[in-house]
UniProtKB/TrEMBL annotation:
Pfam families: Acetyltransf_7. PROSITE patterns: GNAT. PANTHER family: FAMILY N-ACETYLTRANSFERASE, PUTATIVE (AFU_ORTHOLOGUE AFUA_6G03350)-RELATED. Residues 1-124 form the N-acetyltransferase domain. This is N-acetyltransferase. SUPFAM superfamilies: Acyl-CoA N-acyltransferases (Nat). It comes from Streptococcus koreensis. InterPro entries: Acetyltransferase_Butenolide, Acyl_CoA_acyltransferase, GNAT_dom.
Length: 124
């Protein structure tokens, strides 16, 4: 199993993982667009040339890394793969704090994240 930066050839697999979670605001076009900027970074977790999961994050490389999404294929959950992706981000930016907004609080609490305030979102 390897963790590597995603490339454009991974767009379809990443899009499929978004769809499997019913995150329908991530259209195929939007996922391709995310790869067109240098603002979003994707890491993929791959085994036997199949993408089992990914994380997308943004960072200023100094103070804050924001974990935007993390998805692990349902058949590969509860094996520590999400935690491995987060650890890889932390290795890349060890001096930054990792911030996120979550609907999976139990997962983040289990890997030592602490709640801080509340989150808000203004949608389109």
């Amino acid at each position: 199993m390897i963790i590597r930066p995603a490339s454009r050839k991974d767009c379809q697999a990443i899009y499929s993982l978004y769809q499997s979670e019913k995150w329908l605001s991530f259209t195929e076009e939007k996922v391709r667009s995310l790869f067109s900027t240098n603002l979003s970074h994707y890491l993929v977790l791959e085994e036997d040339q199949k993408i089992l999961g990914f994380s997308r994050y943004l960072t200023d490389e100094v103070l804050t890394t924001f974990l935007a999404e993390i998805i692990i294929d349902k058949s590969h959950r509860r094996k520590g793969l999400g935690q491995q992706l987060i650890e890889e981000i932390h290795k890349k930016y060890p001096l930054t704090r990792i911030e996120l907004i979550s609907e999976a609080d139990g997962f983040y609490r289990a890997i030592s994240f602490k709640p801080v305030g509340t989150g808000f979102r203004k949608s389109e």
